[in-house]
Amino acid sequence: MARENVRKNPFSKTDFRYWEDKVKLPRKKEGESVYESNTFTVRIQHSGHRETFSTGESSKRAAAKKALEIYLTIRGAGWDEARLRHKGVMQKMANLTVGEFLDEVGKVTALPRRTFETYAGKLRSIVDGIVKIKMPEGMNRRDYYNGGAEEWRRRIGEVKLSKITPEKVNRWKLEYLAKASSDPRDKQAKRRSVNSLIRNSKTLFSQRHLDFLTHLELPDPLPFTGVRYEPEGSMRYYSQCEPGELMEAACRDLFNADASNEVAIYKGKPLHPMMPRAKEIAESQASSKREAFKIFLLALSLGLRRNEIDKLQWKQFLWSKGAVRIDVTDCFEPKANSGGDVPLDPEILQFFRERKEEADDRFVIEGVEPILDSPQRHYRADKHFKTLSKWLGENGIESRNKIHALRKEYGTIICAQAGIHAASVLLRHSDIRITAAHYVDNRKRVTSGLGEVLQGINS
Predict the structure, then answer these.
(1) Among the listed residues 296, 313, 281, 284, the one whose alpha carbon sits nearest the alpha carbon of residue 380
(2) What residue spans define the domains of the chain?
(3) What tens digit of pLDDT does each residue of 149-198 get?
(4) What are the φ and ψ backbone dihedral angles of 225, each rounded to 5 degrees?
(5) Does the domain made of 243-438 have the CATH classification 3.40.190.290?
(6) Where would I find the H helices in 78-145?
């Protein structure tokens, strides 16, 4: 008999809809009668252990949401904590510190770990701006090697959350903006930075987290209640180069880089060719430039993001289809809804086919092994990214994120050739409004055409 197809649950475990199929009304048989409970239970398996929890809910949807809460607790805090919270009596946590709040959010959040750590870092920066943390003499908050950063985090963690009021956040915001110079560009950069800090920090207090933190006594109002974002102005990208000319320069300077033409740089200073290690350093510099050229092509001709390039593997090239597939791999997960196939020119496809024949690693760009689950963003080919950024700066790209500017140039080219919808698809944006707001720069010179009227006057 043919095996019946089992319908696969289309939702992630961090979506309450996944659990709607998992919650059940338990039945109990007494004699000849079967009784069905009026509250749903759920059986959860994680890390080789399986256990049943009562949701205490008679509505299937409410039970699914409770099941999700239990699952997130298990995943973030472990089985013992889940049993305490959902099978025993959970005591209220009052008079919270910033550190305690972040610990509790970290136990229930569905955010990727690195994203959560980024948002937590933004909140700590705001707290520091409000309370003005004093570090011990000789210690620096940015020193990750000698304990300065750890000590700063510890001191921030001891600050009472009740001290971070909306009034103080707003005062910090105004002080932050006041640090801008008279240059309008600096003022705009400060507005964007302050909005990013507030937006990311505010996410930690969003309802998606508070629904699972009912055991916390949080300050009322919450720290960011009523705090407004600053107007950022236009986010439109304006082209900084002629892509064809930049490509020619990259071929000359990066792809054709040779150790014999390199001036070896050691600790920021040039070495004489006859000095020890000069030849070795020169070859390393030339090799890095050749890797930088591959990064350049992937960013400008395919519009790939830095992390997509960094973790790109040869198996993601669809040679017969003439495309690169951005998808989940053993060390990479695309941004939400940003996977897909990106076509590339036959000549560029052939270039990478030849590079594959020379390669002895699974990654397209040479580098170290990726660090999985790192709380900070880690680039395995960071050396080559720096090489490319330096070269781009020398060739007229003034953006703060110079490699991302190449992606914006790609979006501009596609939009001019095929329109904003095609650009949005190939840039793999989740919303076409992102494309319209950030990436469109019309290269075609369009005028009113009324100049013809003046021909008679000038003749």
Answers:
(1) 313
(2) 16-78, 98-210, 243-438
(3) 899 999 999 999 999 999 999 999 999 999 999 999 899 999 999 999 99
(4) -65, 120
(5) no
(6) 79-86, 98-108, 113-131
